[in-house]
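Thread title: Can someone regenerate the structure for this chain?

I was given the following input by a collaborator and told the matching structure tokens would be attached. They weren't. Posting the sequence so someone can regenerate them.
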Amino acid sequence: MTNSLQDKSRVDVVNSLPIKIQNYIGGEWVPSSNNKVFERENPANPEQIVIVAPNSTVEDTNKAVEAAHAAFAAWARTPAPVRGDILYRFAALLDSEREQVAQVITLEQGKTLKEALGEIDKTIREVRYTAGEASRLDGQTLPSERPGIDIRTIRVPKGVIAAISPWNFPIVTPLRKIAPALAAGNTVVFKPASITVGTAAKIVELFEKAGLPKGALNLVIGSGREVGTPLISHPLVKGVTFTGSTGVGSTIYRAAAERLIQVQLEMGGKNAAIIYDCKDVSHIVNQIVPAAFAATGQRCTSISRILVQRSIMDEVIAHLQEKCQSYVIGDGLDDTTTLGPLVSKDHLETVERYVKIGLEEGATLVHGGKRVENPNNGYFYEPTIFANVSPSMTIVKEEIFGPVLVVTPVDSFEEAIQIANDSEYGLAASCFTSNMEYAEQFVTQVQAGMLHLNNGTISESHVPFGGLNSSAIGQYSIGTTAKDFFTDLKVIYSASK
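Best answer:
Regenerated them for you:
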């Protein structure tokens, strides 16, 4: 668990800790109105403080919304290709500073440096795609039922967008909200998760360098009570895009409904992988394990349950155990680490509680199941596998959001589909089969927004991202569907004189 810090830029980031940041309102970096701050520790070494950040108030939130509103008219009038150019410049700047930004992500969130760099690369691809979308905000020309009438539709920006992001992907998820909002001509008030505000500040710094006008993007750091709730409730906010838990998303949905504004909610998942009538179990497990344990299982799209043909269950379990034994658990800045810490002490204790419940309910623990002792008291937990898990168990029903994978044997493909659908969630699912009839059944019958045949739950940078049921509400993000949330449609009837 020693850091590998040969790279000079990496040493410089570590030696500059703690990083002190502020809110960004109306183009100015400012402290909170109460001058209060909070600290964020390194989850791999909790005694090391990584970030000191403002603990903002309702007053700060209101100022940010007002600044975004004041900037809206001018930004909306800015030609769409010019808005796209700023996004292209942002992507280039992020690429030039990717090593330093990745270190900040690892230090405050915990994921390995390789994963952080991968997240940044994905962000760059998505922002470049979205920059091009600024020039593709097209409408339609439609025929009229009457002579002398021309009909067309146009897309217009909504106004101020509230962007509320989680901690697990602290750069790609905010940019899925900020980039399309700006491309469409909206202005943004950005509330990041308090755990990863250092990365949020880097996003804003890069937009500032890219030449984004003052007020177009505002950053307010603080609690849901002092920032999130008043942000959603503010009369000048015209839309809310949120990624996080289903419980919080439901609260936002109710508050937005009271004001009759649109929401784009990406929430939880309990994603199933079906293994049935297939060849090469080793290859399949090599697909599933990274999809289960990347980011230490702290992904809404993680595969968290496997439904496997009973006759091959023992073979699947053996390959899972072998694969899990290959993980190197440690500080994400260590180049040899392949599994970083959980994000916080509270989250570590949550995962421990679920593992205890699994044992109490009769599941068979076949690998892992305990925290990893380490000299820095970091929040490390072993990749964990339960077998012989019945569909009614808590660890099957509830989102653990950690490195816990449960395996349930099934006796038919129809039973696998039924269990896959026996969930409140519907984000993603995978099916591994050589039987094309089963593959078609999976595509047509499984209730999930993103379906993967014979591969893990990897999403791509130009493709709509979203889910069904309690996993998502509103238009999918990324891809061609993003503009459906970030713009309003107008219909124009024109008569000749």
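Residues 8-267+472-491 form a domain with the Aldehyde Dehydrogenase; Chain A, domain 1 fold (CATH 3.40.605.10).
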